């Protein structure tokens, strides 16, 4: 009898628990966003220069190599994929457009965003999570230092700024990777490739991608800080927090991408 | 603690010059990469060895199939669904502006989905959700000495922990890629209908799809499915230090797995291109 | 007989174990003491082949542990039991499966015999009837005792105990030491026990070794350690500090 009751309760138990954890995270994310935005108000503006500088350096330097490698390969892949069609129709002049358009608007920001979330977002969650489980965050509070101002704000600023810059660099290196691939593998002259990029790819496309970059940076910063600061339960908890953080960031990247695409066309 | 003068690999008593520092900054990541690559290949070989020699633990495999597959379904559906909507939106907009003809949209989208986006983005998502989970779980087992305990009980960790994860992820990567194609295509069809008024029957167009596309899609899924669990388990088994180490391992797992996906994508796409240009169509 | 010969281990450019040579005869119980972070756990893991030393070798019954093939090492480990500092219970298995794991790994397939042995093991650690529970439902002391039961379920002739009483209250600690002593008396085991609980291991060990910063600074029996002139050893043994302790 008891066992039957437990079995019957299980789905509801699961449902309730899932709903609770979703509500907790949604509320936490909204609250953190508000707190961050409030800290950005001019009369509350506290700027921890050295800490921000340190974070800019770490975020940028840590993710630079991986972004460059990813971008070069992505450029190459997009050129090969467009090349498969271009060859069919013999429209070699459109290769630069096909690859450039897709890289600048979609593939570049999405893939660099996913890499950034893996490298910087996950690292950030792990770091804040470790501080949380070893009581360092409480120690900050005990010293009357606001964790939002001291821990979150510098990371927030660093991540948005660096995401923007990395997408700029990534776009550029992706186009170079694409040009080299078109020369080596597809036998399409590099000059022709770049002419096609310059002629057909508009400033609009570049800006479209950069707006996405800033939005992704914002989302990754908020999500990774939230899951880091709500970690509990030792080493296992840190692992779980990192997992939740990267999953949340990936969902946010695709949803935001859709929203921006939808709003701008 | 005082360092002894004869520590291997560390020259003592010499001033570090700028050039030296430059060289070591250049060499360190290369050394790290080659060492990691070697360890990964070794672990892959060991995994295949135990798969062939050891007994199959069906229960563990089913647990992992559930963990990798069932628990990723919603995540894959959301992300790949949105991807389908985004791609159709961008492509449809361009097609409308340039040619005004949306007849080919569905057919070409399916082809591109099979060739590139479905396997690669699915694998990136699995690298995100599953690789971090595996690295975190195995990493905390290392930290709490459970992996040492396995060894003391004469149960090799690769056999015990890596093999079931490897089998489950490889199977599930293929299954989820097929699922991703379906979800993404349906979302795309819906977007085409709602935003461009394109009939679903016109959108569903299989005439572009050939064996080449299917083989490319499945070989990518297979390669990613084998690479991701090996990288994740490697990161997990190499944890040192407490919760900080576990955090570092999960980060490494997701970064290395995603990078491996991109690199494998590049290799397989190039091979596919070369194969296609060699074959008379 | 276990012989540790000139074992040295580096970690990230620091010496963790510094040229340690130690012989442990059969049927002796060695207490390994020393300040925190001096390399006791590392030394133990080197002895059972979990960590490879950078220099030196370890012989168990004249077999070099670190030159064995994986299958031979597995066979050797059937004769070694180990109680880990952090319990190291598999949290995906219940208590009964945890204790039965070494038996099943050794190729035992008779489930009735396994169940019988597990039941007896749980009675031995005076925790009967918890076989169905999972490790995360147990208290620290219970986990240590379950971990002990798992370490000795194969009745290994050699047992290593890595800090069996860390973080436990005095009553639970004494229960664990009673289990250890029972194991020695009933099965004539050779054992190494790491502990900070000097009072506890005074009675269960017949020889003592002390490590300090990776170096072996003392080795001998109880009268010898009580008479030892070295201030580090005598302070550690008596648990006081009359001058500034160099730790």
Automatic annotation (TrEMBL), chain A:
Superkingdom classification of source: Bacteria
- Where it mainly occurs, coarsely classed, is membrane
Provide GO CC annotations from the record.
Answer: ATP-binding cassette (ABC) transporter complex
Give compartment(s). Answer: Membrane
InterPro entries reported in the protein's UniProt record: ABC_MlaE_roteobac (IPR003453), Permease_MalE (IPR030802)
Segments crossing the lipid bilayer: 20-37, 64-86, 156-177, 209-229, 241-260
Query: Sorted alphabetically, which keywords does the UniProt record give?
Result: Membrane, Transmembrane, Transmembrane helix, Transport
One Pfam family for this entry, by name? MlaE
Which family is this protein grouped under? Belongs to the MlaE permease family.
PANTHER family from the UniProt entry: ABC TRANSPORTER PERMEASE PROTEIN-RELATED, PROTEIN TRIGALACTOSYLDIACYLGLYCEROL 1, CHLOROPLASTIC
Name under which the protein is recorded: ABC transporter permease
The upper taxonomy is: Bacteria, Deltaproteobacteria, Bradymonadales, Lujinxingiaceae, Lujinxingia
TrEMBL record, chain B:
GO molecular function list: phospholipid transporter activity
InterPro entries recorded: Permease_MalE (IPR030802)
Show the stretches that span the lipid bilayer: 30-52, 73-92, 166-196, 208-237, 257-279
Which keywords has UniProt assigned to this entry?
Answer: Membrane, Transmembrane, Transmembrane helix
Pull one GO CC term from this UniProt entry.
ATP-binding cassette (ABC) transporter complex
Coiled coil ranges: none
Under the heading PANTHER family, the entry gives: ABC TRANSPORTER PERMEASE PROTEIN-RELATED, PROTEIN TRIGALACTOSYLDIACYLGLYCEROL 1, CHLOROPLASTIC
Q: What is this protein called?
A: ABC transporter permease
Highest classification ranks of the organism: Bacteria, Deltaproteobacteria, Bradymonadales, Lujinxingiaceae, Lujinxingia
From TrEMBL, chain C:
Q: Name one Pfam family in it.
A: ABC_tran
Claim: Kinase is one of the keywords in the record: no
- An MF annotation (GO) of this entry: ATP binding
InterPro entries per record: AAA+_ATPase, ABC_transporter-like_ATP-bd, ABC_transporter-like_CS, P-loop_NTPase
Annotated keywords: ATP-binding, Nucleotide-binding, Transport
Could you tell me which Gene3D superfamilies the record lists for this protein? P-loop containing nucleotide triphosphate hydrolases
Which SMART domains does this entry report, sorted A to Z? AAA (SM00382)
- Limits of the ABC transporter domain: 2-238
Q: Which PANTHER family match?
A: INTERMEMBRANE PHOSPHOLIPID TRANSPORT SYSTEM ATP-BINDING PROTEIN MLAF (PTHR43023:SF6), PROTEIN TRIGALACTOSYLDIACYLGLYCEROL 3, CHLOROPLASTIC (PTHR43023)
Any idea what this protein is called?
A: ATP-binding cassette domain-containing protein
Q: Which organism is it from?
A: Lujinxingia vulgaris
């Amino acid at each position: 009898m008891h066992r039957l009751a437990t079995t019957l309760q299980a789905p509801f138990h699961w449902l309730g628990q899932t709903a609770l954890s979703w509500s907790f995270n949604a509320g936490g994310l909204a609250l953190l966003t508000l707190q961050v935005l409030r800290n950005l108000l001019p009369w509350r503006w506290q700027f921890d220069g050295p800490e921000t500088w340190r974070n800019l350096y770490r975020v940028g330097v840590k993710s630079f190599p991986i972004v460059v490698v990813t971008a070069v390969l992505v450029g190459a892949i997009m050129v090969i994929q467009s090349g498969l069609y271009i060859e069919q129709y013999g429209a070699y002049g459109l290769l630069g457009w096909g690859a450039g358009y897709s890289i600048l608007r979609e593939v570049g920001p999405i893939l660099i965003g996913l890499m950034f979330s893996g490298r910087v977002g996950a690292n950030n969650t792990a770091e804040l999570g470790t501080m949380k489980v070893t009581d360092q965050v409480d120690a900050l509070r005990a010293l009357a230092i606001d964790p939002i101002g001291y821990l979150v704000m510098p990371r927030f600023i660093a991540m948005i700024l660096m995401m923007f810059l990395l997408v700029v660099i990534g776009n550029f290196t992706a186009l170079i990777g694409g040009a080299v691939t078109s020369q080596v593998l597809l036998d399409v002259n590099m000059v022709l490739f770049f002419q096609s990029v310059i002629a057909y790819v508009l400033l609009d496309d570049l800006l479209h991608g950069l707006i996405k970059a800033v939005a992704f940076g914002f989302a990754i910063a908020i999500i990774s800080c939230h899951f880091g600061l709500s970690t509990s339960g030792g080493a296992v908890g840190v692992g779980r927090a990192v997992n939740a953080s990267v999953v949340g960031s990936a969902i946010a990247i695709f949803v935001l991408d859709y929203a921006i695409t939808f709003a701008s066309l | 603690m005082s360092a002894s003068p004869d520590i291997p690999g560390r020259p003592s008593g010499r001033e570090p010059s700028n050039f030296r520092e430059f060289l070591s900054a250049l060499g360190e990541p290369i050394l790290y990469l080659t060492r990691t690559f070697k360890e990964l290949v070794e672990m892959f070989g060991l995994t295949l060895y135990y798969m062939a020699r050891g007994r199959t633990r069906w229960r563990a495999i089913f647990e992992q199939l559930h963990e990798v597959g069932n628990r990723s379904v919603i995540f894959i559906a959301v992300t790949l669904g949105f991807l389908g909507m985004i791609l159709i939106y961008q492509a449809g907009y361009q097609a409308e502006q340039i040619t005004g003809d949306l007849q080919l949209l569905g057919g070409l989208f399916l082809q591109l989905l099979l060739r590139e986006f479905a396997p690669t983005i699915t694998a990136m998502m699995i690298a995100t959700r599953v690789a971090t989970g595996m690295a975190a779980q195995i990493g905390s087992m290392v930290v709490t000495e459970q992996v040492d305990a396995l060894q003391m009980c004469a149960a090799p960790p690769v056999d015990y922990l890596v093999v079931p994860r490897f089998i489950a992820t490889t199977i599930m990567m293929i299954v989820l890629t097929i699922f991703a194609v379906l979800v993404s295509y349906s979302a795309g069809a819906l977007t085409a209908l709602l935003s461009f008024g394109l009939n679903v029957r016109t959108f569903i167009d299989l005439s572009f799809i050939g064996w080449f596309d299917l083989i490319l899609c499945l070989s990518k899924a297979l390669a990613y499915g084998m690479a991701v669990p090996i990288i994740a388990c490697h990161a997990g088994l190499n944890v040192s230090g407490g919760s900080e180490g576990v955090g570092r391992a999960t980060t490494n797992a997701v970064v290395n797995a995603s990078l491996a996906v991109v690199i494998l994508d590049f290799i397989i796409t190039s091979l596919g291109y070369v194969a296609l240009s060699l074959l008379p169509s | 007989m276990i012989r540790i010969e000139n074992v040295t281990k580096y970690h990230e450019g620091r010496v963790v174990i510094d040229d340690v040579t130690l012989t442990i005869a059969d049927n002796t119980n060695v207490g390994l003491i020393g300040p925190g972070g001096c390399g006791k756990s590392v030394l133990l893991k080197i002895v059972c082949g979990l960590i490879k030393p950078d220099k030196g070798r370890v012989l168990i019954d004249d077999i070099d542990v670190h030159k064995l093939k994986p299958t031979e090492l597995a066979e050797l480990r059937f004769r070694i039991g180990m109680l880990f500092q952090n319990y190291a219970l598999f949290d995906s298995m219940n208590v009964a499966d945890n204790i039965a794991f070494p038996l099943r790994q050794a190729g035992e397939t008779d489930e009735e015999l396994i169940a019988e042995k597990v039941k007896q093991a749980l009675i031995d650690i005076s925790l009967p009837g918890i076989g169905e529970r999972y490790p995360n439902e147990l208290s620290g002391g219970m986990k240590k005792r379950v971990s002990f039961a798992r370490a000795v379920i194969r009745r290994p002739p050699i047992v290593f105990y890595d800090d069996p009483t860390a973080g436990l209250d005095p009553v639970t600690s004494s229960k664990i030491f009673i289990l250890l002593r029972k194991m020695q008396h009933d099965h004539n085991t050779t054992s190494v026990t790491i502990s900070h609980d000097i009072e506890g291991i005074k009675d269960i060990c017949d020889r003592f070794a002390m490590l300090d910063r990776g170096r072996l600074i003392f080795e001998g029996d109880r009268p010898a350690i009580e008479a030892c002139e070295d201030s580090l050893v005598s302070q550690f043994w008596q648990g006081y500090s009359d001058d500034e302790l160099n730790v």
